[in-house]
Write a structure and sequence with these properties.
Blueprint: E1 6-23, E2 29-49, E3 54-56, H1 69-81, E4 87-93, H2 104-119, H3 126-134, H4 140-145, E5 149-153, E6 157-160, E7 168-172, H5 180-185, H6 198-202, H7 211-217, H8 219-228, E8 236-237, E9 244-248, H9 251-261, E10 267-273, H10 277-282
Parallel strand pairs: 3-4
Antiparallel strand pairs: 1-2, 2-4, 2-5, 2-10, 5-6, 7-9, 7-10, 8-9
Helix pairs in contact: 1-2, 2-3, 7-8
């Protein structure tokens, strides 16, 4: 085992579209979506322990340590390789809002898997790590593979999209927490929308089919979209979280919008990325 600690970024993601195109017998919805990373990150520090313990330095208030996705990821990885002697101290610096639709928990889990694969010298492939990640959440595999991607199934069937435009985004975090389960179980959600192709997305088919249900349940999200619409063309909701975002050609334009909105909203500006900074930090090809 390496004695070197690792400090790694766990980036947020945006869903540039979200289509609901069916439902599986087990109740999971069949989706089409496009994931892109942004350079707003949590940070994960991994320090080896030699007593076989997997511990979290600062548990999130209200979240039992054993429920934390980083702890679950580390234990799932250790179980997969069958070496109970492997231990780690995990420190999480949270910068991404919980429940915002930015994938913070999934990204933290994926970064833990990627980092421990290096720290523990395991040599697992990206496909093996993504398979373990899928057991933790449908969004974990895209963070493991580390490319902007077209996603289908429940979001785990991925086609890399390395050539998407990488604009600057202004992201707004309205003061609410969307209950994703309630949105997907709503009688008002249309579940039989027709699938589209990547070419359709590139041509401008970028709807979020959950948006009408979310806005009806959380009017403050509709207010945020309206406010952002004064500065950005076609602002969007990311996934089924509460965060909304608009794209800008330059950081300067995004910052102008941020100054205009910052007095009433929690906001930040971030760069769109087609490659995960976690992979760049670990120099994964």
């Amino acid at each position: 085992m390496s004695v070197k600690s690792l400090r790694l970024p766990a980036p947020a993601k945006l869903n540039l579209m979200l289509r609901v195109v069916g439902r599986r017998p087990d109740g999971y919805h069949l989706l089409q979506t496009v994931f892109q990373f942004i350079d707003r990150c949590d940070w994960i520090e991994l320090a080896p322990r030699h007593d076989g313990a997997i511990k979290l330095s600062s548990p999130i208030p209200g979240v039992p340590e054993e429920s934390d996705l980083t702890i679950r990821a580390a234990k799932r990885l250790r179980q997969a390789v069958g070496n109970e002697a492997l231990g780690v101290q995990i420190t999480v610096e949270k910068n991404l809002p919980m429940g915002g639709g930015l994938g913070g928990g999934s990204s933290d889990a994926a970064t833990t898997l990627l980092g421990l694969n290096t720290l523990w010298g395991l040599g697992l492939s990206m496909d093996e790590l993504a398979s373990l990640g899928l057991q933790l959440g449908a969004d974990v595999p895209v963070f493991v593979h580390g490319w902007a991607a077209w996603g289908e199934g429940v979001g785990e069937e991925l086609i890399p999209l390395p050539d998407l435009p990488e604009p600057w985004y202004l992201v707004m975090n309205p003061p609410c927490h969307v209950a994703t389960g309630a949105i997907f179980s709503s009688d008002e959600l249309t579940r039989d929308n027709k699938p589209i192709t990547i070419a359709d997305f590139v041509a401008g088919r970028q709807e979020n089919h959950c948006l009408p249900v979310v806005v009806k349940a959380y009017p403050e999200i509709g207010d945020a979209l309206k406010a952002l619409g004064q500065y950005a063309i076609s602002p969007k909701l990311t996934g089924t979280g509460c965060c909304v975002f608009g794209a800008f050609e330059s950081e300067a334009e995004a910052q102008i919008a941020a100054r205009g909105l910052s007095s009433n909203w929690s906001i930040f500006v971030a760069k769109g990325l087609n490659r995960s900074p976690t992979h760049e930090a670990l120099e994964i090809a």
